[in-house]
Every structure is written in structure tokens, then in C-alpha cells.
Amino acid sequence: MVTLGGFVLLIPLSPVLIFGWGPFPQLGVAGGGAAVLIYYLLAMLVLGLYMRSPQSPLALRIAPLRWRLFKDMLGVGLLSALGSIQLNLTVVFVTAAVGLFGADAIAGYGIASRLDYIQIPILFGIGTALLTMVGVNIGAGQLDRARRIAWTGAVVSFVVTELIGVTALLFPHAWIGLFSDDPDVHAMAALYIRNVAPVYGFVGLGLALYFASQGAGRVLLPVLAGTARMIIAAFVGWLAVAWYGVGLSTLFLIVGCASVTYGAIVAATMLLGAWGHPARWQM
């Protein structure tokens, strides 16, 4: 409900603060950021008050700090934070490499890569359920059941994200046309979609198993898979453009290969027994 409330709040509040309607100041682009900050402050307040109320099944109260709990949380949280940093660095370096091809390339890449981010809410929804269900079953000693849950979620994620990619591949201009009528921008965006969208499923597979690995408390190998993705897409891609002068199509092909590598490594670590004994093929 808080998330839905944020959706209702941000749609009118963002343009109000950006353009300065009525008594509100005109903040420009910063208004969008201010609106998001206001939402998170209100969300924190509402959730805090709810967890202090009798209606909350989990009561928020002052308690002594325990190193054991910090150790458990940070053992997963720090590595997961590193994975998020790697993802953002990948975006930064790929954007820098695309920028070497000019403004049309940046615009086309920005439009096409929005499809990548549309998948994030879907994968986070599935991933949140996987994290919880896997964690509960790992805690109960039900390793095989936890693994079946993880693979079921991974298959669902693969199918959903791959369907998005195939649809974008078949009808690229249905998406691109929402943002630009410029033929050069269309061409650049379509180039990205042709090279990257067909392998969206591997990203969905990898992220689903990554969330499941968080529930199992085994995130090192999935984070290392993200490192491999960053090295291939960001550093190899940028060096290929900046030093060897490859074309934009080759750069996007490298990005696609990085996605396949990421999903394949995470899946392989699961199959080879990242949570204990090697996985058995059962759903």
C-alpha cells in the first residue's frame, strides 16, 4: 500500500516541483529528485508508525545490538551491495562507450535500454518471494525443497524476460516510437535491441538465482558472476571502442555476451553445488 501510495503521490508531485505550479517552486530536473526524496521520507514514517502499532505482526522496538545479527546481515548485505555497485558501474562504462558515437547513439541507447529496467520490478517481485521462501526452507533444513523453489523461480524469470526480449525484437519500433521519431535515433535503438534483447532471459535467470542465493546466505559466487559481466560489458566493451575502434553493433554484441555469461555462471554454480551437494534436476 505504501508503494502504491508513492505511485499516486509521485505522478502529480514530480511535475509540480519540476515546473513550479502554484505555490511550489520551479526546481527543474532537481524537482524529480526532490519528489522521490519526499516520498521515501513519508514512506519511512508510515512504515515506522505501522510497525510500532498493534496491527503489525513484527513489532519495532528498541533492543540491544547484537554482533551475531550484524554479522549475519552484513555477510549477505555487503556482498549484495557490491553486486549493485557493479551493476551501476557497468551502466556507466557502457554509456561512456556509447557516448563516443555521438548524441543519436546516446539517445537510441537510452531509449532501448529502458527495456532492461522495465524488467527490474518484475524480477524484484519474483526475487523477493524466492529470497523469503528459500530462506525459510534453508532454515528448516529442507535443502532440496529450497533448491526446487529457486529453480522454479528461475524458469519463470527466464520465460518472462525472454518473452519481453523476443517481443521487442519482433516489434522494436512499437517501443522506440513512444520516445522519438528521429530515424537515426530509431536505428541506434533498434541496433541495441537486436543484439541484447534476445538474451534477456539469461539476465532474468541469473537475477532470480541471485535472489535465491541471498535467501540461502550464499551470494559470493553470484556476485563474482556479476563481476564477470561487468568486466566483459563495461571494460572490454569500452576498451574495444576506445582503443580498437569497433562499431556500435560490436559493442552491443559484447554487452549481450556479458548477459549470457552472467546467467550461465550463476546457473552453473547452482548445479555444481553452491548450496551444498550438487543439484538434482527436479521441479
From TrEMBL:
The chain crosses the membrane at residues 30-52, 73-98, 118-138, 150-171, 191-212, 219-245, 251-275. It is a multi-pass membrane protein. Keywords: Cell membrane, Membrane, Transmembrane, Transmembrane helix, Transport. InterPro entries: MATE_fam (IPR002528), Membrane_Transporter-Flippase (IPR052031). It is found in: Cell membrane. Pfam families: MatE. This is MATE family efflux transporter. It comes from Sulfitobacter porphyrae.
